[in-house]
Every structure is written in structure tokens, then in C-alpha cells.
Amino acid sequence: MKKRATPKYRRILLKLSGEALGDDSGCGINPEAVHEMARQVREVKDMEVEVVIVVGGGNIFRGLQGSEKGMERATGDYMGMLGTVINALALQDALEKQQVPTRVQSAISMAQVAEPFIRRRAVRHLEKGRVVIFGGGTGNPYFSTDTTAALRAAEIGADVILKATKVDGIYDSDPKKNPSAKRFEKITYIEALQKQLKVMDSTAFSLCMDNKMPIIVFDMFDGDNLAKVVRGEKVGTIVTS
């Protein structure tokens, strides 16, 4: 009988961008992409790891882009928050189709489709073996879903933030534009801020730095990288103090 791999982390926060759930242009919802994410999350759940997910809403609406075209920034941000709840429900549906018990909690009250965010209830769901998906951002405009991820990770006592991207780590410049871009295996919060590496915004980085919360940036769309990261294999870039 094959021995089950021992995970390095027992409670993880997975940060997914809205674009990751979209089509090739990063728009709408691509059922195949959502199904693949759910499969990888189930694989990690089978390792008895507690999983919380923060999902963005950029595939549906970006508040910042709306404000650049004349929309009130706060209004645009609230619209973006509603988009994250749509994504959370899509992810919940895909996970439950794979027999993974799931709860969606929203920072914006919408009792018909999601629980309100209550920290103690979220922790209890994790202890009962459920995946918890956080939608609605922080519930406040002017804060990104990266900041939400940093905040929720600290609140629920996660061991690590796993930021899923379409790039295999953090580079000193855009690897799509610069073929000789250097990838970091490990970098500190201060270095990432000083080099202005656009992995997370400065508010999210500061929260992680203050709470000594490690961040691993990795490519979730290359094989079973999520499981590899959870096992402690060298995948992507780790940001620590």
C-alpha cells in the first residue's frame, strides 16, 4: 500500500485571482479551469490539510478600472466584491461535485447565498473538515483581495499563504517580456517591497510581515503543484522575514 505523503502545512490559505477562473483572456468563468482547481484542492484535502480560499473578482469586474473610466471608486470596489462572491459560489459548486464539503462566507451580508464572515465559525468549519471560501473581500472599498488574504490568514491562524498564479514564482522583471529575467527561490518582505515586485500590494505585504506570515507564489496550472507545495517541495518562490 502506498504511504500517504506527510504535509508540511496543516492549515493553508489559498489565494486565487479571479482571472484564474476565467477564459484565456481572463474574463467570465471557465468551468474547466474551476474544475481543475477543485481537483487540486480535493487532492490536498485528502492529505488531511485544512483549506481556506480567498478568491478575487477580476474576471467579472475590477473596481480600479471602473474608477479610471469615471466611476466612483467605492462603488466600483463594491461591484468587484460582489464579483468575488459569484466566483466563490462557482468554486463551491465545483468542490461539492467532487464530494468536498464547503462553506462560503461573505464579508458583505447576503444570507440567501452565503454565511456572514464569523472567524470562530470559520475555524469550526475547518475543524469539521470543510473547505471555507471567503468572498466579498474585506467588506470595505480601497482594499484588495490580496489584503483580504493576508488579513484572513492571520485571523484563522493559517500556516502559510499560497498565492496561485500563472507564473512559476517571483521574478526581478516580467519573464514574458524579458527572457533573461531572474527567478527568486526565496526573498524577504523588505526586498520585495524595495524592488517593487508586483506580487501583492504593499498593505498585504505589511500585514504578512507584521504577522510573520510566509507567502509562497507558485504556478497552480502546472501539474499538481498545489500538492507539491503543501508537501514542502521546492516549488515557486517563498517570501519570509
Write the layout of secondary structure elements.
Elements: E1 11-16, H1 31-45, E2 50-55, H2 63-68, H3 73-97, E3 102-106, E4 115-116, H4 119-127, E5 131-135, H5 145-156, E6 160-165, E7 170-171, E8 183-184, E9 186-188, H6 189-194, H7 202-210, E10 215-219, H8 225-231, E11 237-240
Parallel strand pairs: 1-2, 1-6, 2-5, 3-4, 3-5, 6-10, 9-11
Antiparallel strand pairs: 7-8, 10-11
Helix pairs in contact: 1-3, 1-8, 5-7
Overall domain count: 1
Major β-sheet strand ordering: 4-3-5-2-1-6-10-11-9
Distance between the termini: 40 Å
Strand content: 15-25%
Structural class, by secondary structure, is alpha/beta
Low-pLDDT runs of 5+ residues are none
Helix amount: 25-40%
Order of helices and strands: EHEHHEEHEHEEEEHHEHE
Describe the oligomeric state of these chains in a short phrase.
single chain
Quick one: CATH class? Alpha Beta
| Largest sheet entry | 9 strands, mixed
Superfamily at the CATH H level? Acetylglutamate kinase-like
Name of the CATH architecture: 3-Layer(aba) Sandwich
Number of helices: 8
What is the name of the CATH topology?
Answer: Carbamate kinase
